[in-house]
Amino acid sequence: MIQRKQSVFLFLSFISLAGLAFLPLANFLGDQDSLVMYVYQIVSKVPDSIPPFSSLFLLPLLSIVIIAATLSFGAIFMFKNRSRQLMVVRLMIFL
Predict the structure, then answer these.
(1) Which of 13, 9, 22 lies closest to 67, judged by CA?
(2) If DSSP codes are grouped into helix, strand and coil, which group holds residue 94?
(3) If we measure between CA atoms, which residue out of 59, 62, 42 comes closest to residue 51?
(4) What is the DSSP letter of 81?
(5) What is the chain's Cα-based Rg?
(6) Domain layout of the chain by residue ranges
(7) 17: CB partners within 8 A, 6+ apart
(8) pLDDT tops 50 at residue 1
(9) How much is the pLDDT for 15?
């Protein structure tokens, strides 16, 4: 029974990490510009303006989210080897 509950929570963590690709992380409202920050890009709400950050600025955040989502999804299928599953979950908590 514990394994099933753990798999449900791991799946919910995968869904929430995958949802970060579609939902904005933050909104920045300034005097001259308004920015919306996603995991993969920063979008300016002002027409014909260039965001002050390149896409490489968010590369570390994007890589951490992808690694955590992959580990979460992979840990669901490690139910036969509980010690390895616990090690992967601890690594996800560290991330």
Answers:
(1) 13
(2) helix
(3) 42
(4) -
(5) 17
(6) 2-94
(7) 65, 68, 69, 72
(8) no
(9) 92
Residue by residue, DSSP assigns 15-45 as: HHHHHTTTS-SEEEE-SS-EEEE-SS-EEES
φ and ψ at residue 48, rounded to 5 degrees: 60, 30
Unique residue bearing structure tokens 């995968």 = 14
pLDDT band at 2 (very low <50, low <70, confident <90, very high): low
Tokens of 46: 């002002």
Give the C-alpha separation, 82 to 86, whole Å. 6
8-24 in b/e burial notation, b at 16+ Cβ within 10 A?
A: eebeebbeebeebeeee
For residues 80 and 7, what is the distance between their CA atoms, to the nearest angstrom?
Answer: 12
The number of C-alpha atoms within 13 Å of 84 and in the hemisphere containing its C-beta is: 9
What tokens were used for 94?
């560290």
Q: Please tell me the distance from the alpha carbon of residue 87 to that of residue 23, in angstroms, as a whole number.
A: 29
Residue 54 pLDDT more than 50? yes
